[in-house]
Amino acid sequence: MSEVKAAPSVRALALQKGIDIDALAKSLGRTTIGREDLEAGAKPAAAAASGPAGDTSYWDVDHSQYGPVSEEPMSRFAQVASANLAAANTLIPQVTHHDRADVSAIEALRKSLKSEAQARAVKLTALAFQAKALARALREFPRFNASLSPDGKTLILKDYVHIGIAVDTAHGLMVPVVRDVDKKGLWQIAAEITDLASRAQNRKVGPDEMGGASMSISNLGGIGGIGFTPIVNPPEVAILGITRTETVTVWDGDTPRPVPMVPLDLSYDHRVINGADAARFVTYLAGLIADPRRIMV
Question: Which residues have CB under 8 Å from 62's CB, separation 6+?
């Protein structure tokens, strides 16, 4: 019996299109197949997003006629990730909401806990606080902790909170998942993020540690930038992007005050989430980040 999970309607469509679901799942590195995967499997995502009738002939250019070139083959891992991202960007109507959050309290708390962090041999990063705050926000706004059925007719609400952490590795982007973040303390969350990121770099993260996230975080704060538009990672309905903390002048009456702020970029599936709800969600999340006492209760 096939171990690949797919709705009966998806299996029927696969049979109609002549697509081998098991082979498709293996090629995508997945254990769950949805209707959108069949569309991508029947017609490459890049072609679907190209010119009229999926024509990509205009991409086939002899670049060497313009100057020296070299070639670098795309790894199998990168090819799979590329197809998934292209399909997601093609099939999901995505919108990104931008905001920022005061991290003064988090940075002060991290500084006060530096000795304890060293004693525990745990790197207490700002990301641990942000993941914990996101978990709290997902409990407060359950529609964000959901997935849309392949036929678009049913919203599946999740009674668990798992957070995917995007990790930039030499072999491509990986998104291992921290389970039950809402039930764990900051030290445990920080330790698990460090462990997963380290093992991802060495390709030692198992398939069972990669799926089932409520929402993912793509954190570019260690590199730079003031904002970006992360692509929703289906079957999730939203993704949180974070970039480098910047000092922003905040006016307290007539007095200017420098405040460290972290940019927040929430991309969401507009079929499930509307703009007003996204704004409320990010405002709530920013409030939790600004006052970390609320996430430690």
Answer: none
